[in-house]
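Model the whole thing, not chain by chain.
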Amino acid sequence: MEYRLALIGLGVVGQGIVEILTNERNSLQESYDIDLKVTAISDIRKGSVYDPEGIDLKQILDLVKEKDCIDDYIGGVKGWDSLKTIRESNADIVVEATETDIVTGEPGLTHMLTSIEHGKHVVTTNKGPLSLASTKLLDRAAEVGVHLRFEGTVLSGTPALGLATQHLAAAHIIAVHGIVNGTCNYILTEMEKGLTYDAALKQAQELGYAEADPSADVEGLDSLAKIIILANTLLGGNLNKDQVDCKGISEISREDVEAAKENGRRWKLIATAKVVNDNAIEAHVRPKKLPLDDPLAAVTGATNALTYETRYLGNITIIGPGAGGLETGYAILHDILDIHKKLREQ
Amino acid sequence: MEYRLALIGLGVVGQGIVEILTNERNSLQESYDIDLKVTAISDIRKGSVYDPEGIDLKQILDLVKEKDCIDDYIGGVKGWDSLKTIRESNADIVVEATETDIVTGEPGLTHMLTSIEHGKHVVTTNKGPLSLASTKLLDRAAEVGVHLRFEGTVLSGTPALGLATQHLAAAHIIAVHGIVNGTCNYILTEMEKGLTYDAALKQAQELGYAEADPSADVEGLDSLAKIIILANTLLGGNLNKDQVDCKGISEISREDVEAAKENGRRWKLIATAKVVNDNAIEAHVRPKKLPLDDPLAAVTGATNALTYETRYLGNITIIGPGAGGLETGYAILHDILDIHKKLREQ
């Protein structure tokens, strides 16, 4: 089966999926009988190309590398903005990989709603729209009869959502908690090695883990967006960010880390969502001192992890990358393959 | 859709799936549009019942609890042995949950082959047949057009195989290693707390983790069977047990454990399979001193874990139960739901 993809956003993640598709096109045809053809790319800074017959991805990667711009692409139509690309391209699947805005959800939210209204499946790695409006998006997609997938919004390509929805749902997930922000985890790991909070943050910034304004990470807002996605899409919650207590790691001192270590414990920023007595869903983000025999305590550096508490299996933990271009790009491929499976079931 | 199940083996695992089906029948109909009806049960010690209209599972559980025997079941036909049950019952899916024999694979191997020849799907938790003859079984199932699923042969209900086949395959798994025997891991954990090997083994036996003859666990043979299943069904290997170096934990002393601890390391029995240079598959089972920042080092007690090494995601680790009646019973439900999905795709 052939799918035509429109790629909205050509940042680190967009380039990741382009690289994977460049490498894997033949092997995907052999293994999954699926031909993935990118016919449109639109990025607000790097430019846009539309070619209904399929874009040469190798040329795109070379242009991005050399010029950080795809305007010189040979062939295709140039200059379509994201909404024109979504509306007028021949894509079956829109890949939404623009930057996350957890306050407005834009521009991703409008991109996704427009895609759905135009009968196009959506795959996204953008946390903003899903944390703000997952119910609206999923309901509307179901009404229209298109699929919406968002594995890459949590733990990048680590298939934490797929594991839960496809393998643990029948075991009844009653809670989920974990480390969903690699920057905070990196900082806490470095503090345990002896750095102060400020020095560890500076190091995270130098390595590209943390932004110049690190507040979305260190104050827990990125974790907040992710736990809302987990709570609302896996546990049936309907939470918004004002209903979730959120505390980050910026007040944890070197002394706090040392004191925990002496007591056989380790600070981690933990995001939690659980079904409470009356079937309501409760969630929060806060630093916790975990005992060292908790599998999450051993998750160090920028790695992420989630533990699902289930009725029949007890705790199931998945550990893997939480960021990265190829890693998050893989989430997009994962979701396209999942949509392909679903379409074959119909 | 209705499925009729024949349950071969009513030990701890068989009782586990019976209990789950008793609890979940209505919820499975609602969530998956699937009606699971057990029409036959055959156990070499506890007796057998066949009722083409469906067996009352509550009555079965009560009889097993009270009499360890189902001969007094009210209704149905009694006395069918396992092969007659497989051949002549109206089951669509045969659930093979007899005891593992890793030398001959019997009686599970004959049960599975007979099921396949009679056009019945097979779900199993029995490691013997899969570790000895996975290629033969899977090839024959494909020829006949039935499905064979075996999630419960590795890490009980922890969906380690489902994670790999359905979510990591496109990321290219190049190796897998982990803790696949809970008894050994329990013993090593207790030794680190101060027990000798013999005392820890005795404790594992008292808790029911280890058999009176513990050699299959402590000499690594159980891990060997599991790594062969992983190597041959996930990595495309064709290994038999003579091609896999296997060393257990019986020679590890209290002093060894203490010395590792002093060096910031921890002994674990690790089973490994990997793709080597010429695309051959290599596997072994041996105790290893892991650094404490390896996620597997933090897996304590009877818990199991596997780390998949992949091209696009790096390492993905899943941690969960490795044994237990309900836990392994859940693997059977998981596999039936997976077959249901596959049948809907066709």
